Structures are given as structure tokens and as C-alpha cells.
């Protein structure tokens, strides 16, 4: 939901970027100089920031939000230096400095985005847990996997195909969109169940109320062991991917449990109707 501005005179501000992004390095220097001149009382620090200025694309914004939300729950002010920049507060670099001025004057709104918890249970033991902002994907790497999707104890779908993804409204414009799932306004609290390349007749996505528990049961798949995860060297055939960066190998009989998280991510928005403007500019909505 959109909330009134609640940031007043932030004390700690962090600037988050990847050093491999050369434009971000340059902009970081500019913004640090600007902050020191305009707001000398602000600490530029990564220790419990009130605000994080993120320089990069959606992946960098996602990384910053997940890294800090449980520490100080800062407001994320994203400046797009990536590709789409759908999560960014400002997409055009020519507007960065003017928008920073407006932001520190409190002329913005906060969009709260829900997160989800995902757990993997194997032999009645929890072996994996992660908080997710965009989506959870259960997917076969090279072949076919048989899955069952259960919502509130009811089996709503049997999938024999590449897999299934569970997206938030924020994630509806990411992998879910590529899989022909629906676009959902980000202030709607929900879970989107979208199948991936089912070998049966394609069925539409299902939008589930946010407080429902979604369970994915890994029923069967053919073990080939051709590929492995680079870090662990574990052979994989079916994996769970959390926001595209946390990868965990799955086994037959594993149960994936997805439910609403109590945490919210706060993204700064500088324009009214920002969501629809982003759709038009990024996805050619007419």
C-alpha cells in the first residue's frame, strides 16, 4: 500500500551499489559530495541505515532490500543504473539529483511490499528457509518433474512439466510475467501460482489471498545428475530458486512450504500512478 512519508531528517544513509558497475561508482561519488554539502549532519554508513540509496538495476535493489530489511527496515530509494529498473524510484539519470532534493525534503510516498517465507521440509525436518520478495521457483533443470500444489489443504494443481513458481505482486512483473502470468498491482497482498511449461493443456495462473499457505510437493523426477551447483558441487535435477539467487537442490519427497512473511519492504516512490507509468514505459502497455 502507499503510505504517507514517514522519514524525517534521516540520521544514517547508506549508498549501495556494485563496484563492477562503473556508472554507479561515479554516481556514488557525486551523491556523497552532495550529501556532505547539503546535509552535513547525516552519517553515510551501512550500519543500521534509515535510508538506502541504491545505484543499479532491479537485482541490486532487491539485494539491498533483503540485506537490510531485518536490520533497520530502511526506506529504499532506487536510482536505476541497470536495465528495466522497475523497482527503482527514479529511472532516468538526468532526474537523479532533482529527485534526491525532493526526497530529502520529504516529497515522496512509501510503497510497502509484502515478502514471503519459503521452507523446505525433508523427512519431517526443515532443511532450508529464506525470505523472498519476488518469487519462489521449483523447476527441473533439464527434464520433467511431477509436482502437486496444495492451498489450504486442497490440491489445486498437478503439474508434469518444467515446474511452478509462486510470485508476490511485486514479482508479478519479473519471471511470472515471462511465464505469461498476470500483472498485479504491487500494493495487492497475494500469491500468484503460475505453472512452467506443463505437458498437459495449459491452465491459467491462480491468484491466492496473502494469508493462505501454499505447499508444493515434489512427487517424482528422473535423476540424471548431469549438472551440479558450482559452489557445493552437488548434482542437481530439480532446484528451488528464491528470488533467482538462492539455489537449493531438491529430492523426491521434498515439501516446499510458502507463506506470508511479517516483514515489509519500503520503496520510495516519487510520482503518482508510478506503477502504471512503469508498465507503459517498460512493457509497452497501450
UniProtKB/TrEMBL annotation:
Domain of life of the organism encoding this protein: Bacteria
InterPro entries recorded: ATP-NAD_kinase_N, ATP-NAD_kinase_PpnK-typ_C, NAD/diacylglycerol_kinase_sf, NADK
Catalyzed reactions: NAD(+) + ATP = ADP + NADP(+) + H(+)
Gene Ontology cellular component terms for the protein in this record: cytoplasm
Principal subcellular localization: cytoplasm
Keywords in alphabetical order: ATP-binding, Cytoplasm, Kinase, NAD, NADP, Nucleotide-binding, Transferase
Cofactor: a divalent metal cation
Enzyme Commission number: 2.7.1.23
SUPFAM superfamilies named in the record: NAD kinase/diacylglycerol kinase-like
Positions of NAD(+) binding: 58-59, 134-135, 160, 173-178, 245
Molecular function GO labels: ATP binding; metal ion binding; NAD binding; NAD+ kinase activity
Positions annotated as active site in the UniProt record: 58 (proton acceptor)
Gene3D superfamilies tied to this protein: Probable inorganic polyphosphate/atp-NAD kinase, domain 1, Probable inorganic polyphosphate/atp-NAD kinase, domain 2
Cell compartments where the protein resides: Cytoplasm
Any single GO BP term: NAD+ metabolic process
EC class: transferase
Family: Belongs to the NAD kinase family.
PANTHER family, per database record: NAD KINASE (PTHR20275:SF0)
Job of this protein: Involved in the regulation of the intracellular balance of NAD and NADP, and is a key enzyme in the biosynthesis of NADP. Catalyzes specifically the phosphorylation on 2'-hydroxyl of the adenosine moiety of NAD to yield NADP.
Descriptive protein name: NAD kinase
Amino acid at each position: 500500500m502507499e503510505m504517507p512519508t514517514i522519514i524525517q531528517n534521516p540520521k544514517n544513509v547508506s549508498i549501495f551499489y556494485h563496484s563492477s558497475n562503473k556508472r554507479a561508482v561515479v554516481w556514488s561519488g557525486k551523491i556523497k559530495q552532495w550529501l556532505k554539502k547539503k546535509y552535513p549532519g547525516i552519517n553515510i554508513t551501512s550500519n543500521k541505515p534509515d535510508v538506502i540509496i541504491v545505484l543499479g538495476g532491479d537485482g541490486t535493489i532487491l539485494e539491498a532490500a533483503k540485506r537490510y530489511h531485518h536490520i533497520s527496515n530502511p526506506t529504499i530509494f532506487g536510482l536505476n543504473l541497470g536495465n528495466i529498473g522497475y523497482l527503482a524510484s527514479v529511472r532516468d539519470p538526468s532526474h537523479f539529483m532533482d529527485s534526491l532534493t525532493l526526497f530529502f525534503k520529504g516529497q515522496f510516498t512509501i510503497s510497502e511490499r509484502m515478502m514471503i517465507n519459503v521452507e523446505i521440509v525433508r523427512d519431517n525436518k526443515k532443511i532450508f528457509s529464506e525470505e523472498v520478495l519476488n518469487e519462489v521457483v521449483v523447476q527441473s533443470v533439464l527434464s520433467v518433474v511431477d509436482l502437486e500444489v496444495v492451498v489450504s489443504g486442497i490440491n489445486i494443481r498437478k503439474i508434469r512439466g518444467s515446474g511452478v513458481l509462486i510470485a508476490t505482486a511485486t514479482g508479478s512483473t519479473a519471471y511470472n510475467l515471462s511465464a505469461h502470468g498476470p500483472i498485479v498491482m504491487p500494493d495487492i497482498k497475494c500469491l500468484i501460482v503460475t505453472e512452467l511449461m506443463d505437458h498437459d493443456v495449459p491452465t491459467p495462473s491462480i491468484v491466492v489471498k496473502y494469508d493462505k499457505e501454499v505447499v508444493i510437493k515434489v512427487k517424482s523426477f528422473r535423476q540424471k545428475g548431469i549438472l551440479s551447483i558450482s559452489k557445493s558441487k552437488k548434482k542437481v535435477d530439480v532446484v528451488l530458486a528464491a528470488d533467482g539467487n538462492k539455489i537449493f537442490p531438491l529430492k523426491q519427497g521434498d515439501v516446499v512450504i510458502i507463506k506470508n512473511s511479517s516483514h515489509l519492504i519500503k520503496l520510495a516512490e516519487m510520482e503518482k500512478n508510478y506503477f502504471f507509468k512503469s508498465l507503459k514505459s517498460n512493457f509497452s502497455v497501450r
